[in-house]
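Weekly structure sync - notes
Attendees: PM, LS, DV (DV joined late)
Agenda: review two folding runs queued last week.

Item 1: First target. Sequence and structure tokens pasted below for the record.
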Amino acid sequence: MRTPDNTCPPPTTMTSMRIPRLFCIAALMLAILIPAPATAERKIRVLIVDGFSNHDWQQTTALLRTILQAAGGFDVAVSTAPLDPASPAWASWRPRFIDYDVVIQNCNEGAMNGALAGVKPKPDWPDQVKKDFAGFVRKGGGVYIFHSAENAFVGWKEYEDMVGLSWRNADFGPSTRITPEGQIVRIPAGVGEGTNHGPRADRLVTRIANDPIHAGMPRAWLTPDSEVYVYARSRSAEILDRVKILAYAQDTKTGLGLNWPVEWTTTYGKGRVYVSVYGHVWPGDVHPASMRAADVQTIIPRAVQWLARRPVTLPTPKDFPSPTAISVRDTVPLP
């Protein structure tokens, strides 16, 4: 009888066929189990929004860009709001907040330190820009409310909720202060004053708790030429519940001398918000100490890292101030 064509090959032939296949299977398993080398994490995308303020917003923006670029790891862009609501630029101005990890808000429509009665000063943001901004934060974006931006947009409830503690009249809502022992005390709406501040001065800043932004920093340090806002107000007790005070300082007002928040965080939807009163740049100031302070130049990029949900990796520098001495750095060329 004839042997069929599909007769199995000898065992030695089968073995030789299996060896390459086994090598392929082993290589595939190794490729799955061994992770590929990690690629460098992309830079944090930051958008500074400016265009109007009772402060020197142009110099503030330039200083912020310089500080972040010197720290490294940030791609910084600027979007400048137009001033005239009747202009074509106003109609077409639409910052793409969703393209960024963090927005630094450097606009203040000119509340002029508490003159909030009557028709609020202009300019403003277009309604669609306000909607886009609120949506960006609500969906998880990070926002840095820089200095006088804490005063801004009276009556825009979403923004006031983001800021947590705003420059407002006494009847706007509750306030908060800190005892000498570090305990937080709530102040009801209508009790005390509207938000204001005393003369700028070197102030001892004390941090309350351990948080990523301040990790590795001393418990207290001296910051130069700083304002301390008294009686900053929340729109409601519920909004105040979301405020986490990070650091405080004593005001310079005659007859008051209480401790008030100078840094805090809050949330809006899924978004993170960081607010501080550091960084006063008044018209006519040139490279003010408030922006050359080693503590401020350390905290700004660290806060942006935290807002972007990245590890806070920037170290505490050797020239960080002590509780008894400020540390002011040399000026640098502005972009």
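Item 2: Second target, run right after the first with the same settings.
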Amino acid sequence: MKKSIVFMVAAAALCVGCDKGFEKVSEPTLELSTPQTTYFTQEPVVFDIASDANFLSFYSGERGNDYAYAHKERIYEGEAFLSFNTAFQAGAQWMRQLEEDVEKKVLRLFYSTDFSGEYTLEAVERATWKELTTQFEFPTSRASNAKVLSQTTPSGAVNVKELFAEEDLVKPIYLAFCYRIEGYDAALGNSRSRASVMNFELYTRCEEVNATADIAKQSTAGWQLVTKGYELESGDYAPEVTSNMIWFDCDGGTTDAAAQERICWAISSAMQINTDVNIGCDYGVGIKSFASEPISTYTYTYAKPGIYDVYVTAANVDHEGSRIEKTASVRIEVVEQGNADIEQPGDGEW
């Protein structure tokens, strides 16, 4: 018992001693300078750094590495586009897609701004649906397997400004594919065709920064089916929505069910068109870690001319995670070779 008490007291003393050995985090020192203020493109720029910090990060001042956006997200204006892939399989009715009269086509695309969001036939029929079908490419031949992406036809990416009325761009929008198959008539030889929609993408793209932001994809668009004329259909021929496809199916045989017209709407959830592309904050390049040796210089080369506000951040961190940062900056100008005079060192600085 006496030995146990002695051990516990010793361990407690050791822990107290360890805790006292940790110092509170202190503010780091930091100085940043350059030998001159003007440099050529592709010329190594040497930054002189004096710091006792545990961590150092470098911001060149270029897009993507600019301290001005270290705590502020970069948001750029882009343009929104819509694209998808479709295919037809089996039967003869797919050929109606080639008709000039859009109302005769098997698969059509619409949008609505007054759909109630109630996925019933009555709500669909009450809504105003505006035609988009002719703005996109659809298959001109039949696939052997419409469930295989490589056998589908890309619609092309169309700017939403060409699709939606300007006043509708600020409203929640529902997109809908409508599949209509006529009742089978042996005299007409109009055997039924299946259809698929895959690779649906509604996205915003900013060419300036080569960045894309998703608005909705095949798996996130919230597709729900509303059907008419499927009352006699067996489960084997029911349309369905999966994470990668809308599958429009129906009985292609000669039964009483096959003789009935089928209509299936696949309607998205409400979508808000946003043309902003948010690429997030800029991050510094770590040039010294806790375990690495102190540094006195850092060299960087600029590819493009411009005026750059260069920052270095210094940070000290203690064992409890407390952090104190300090920043230093210098402004430099980078010019094309031969476009400006470089500031020369003064007397005795060569």
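Discussion on item 2: The chain has two domains: 22-71+284-335, 76-278.
Action: LS to circulate a short write-up before next sync.
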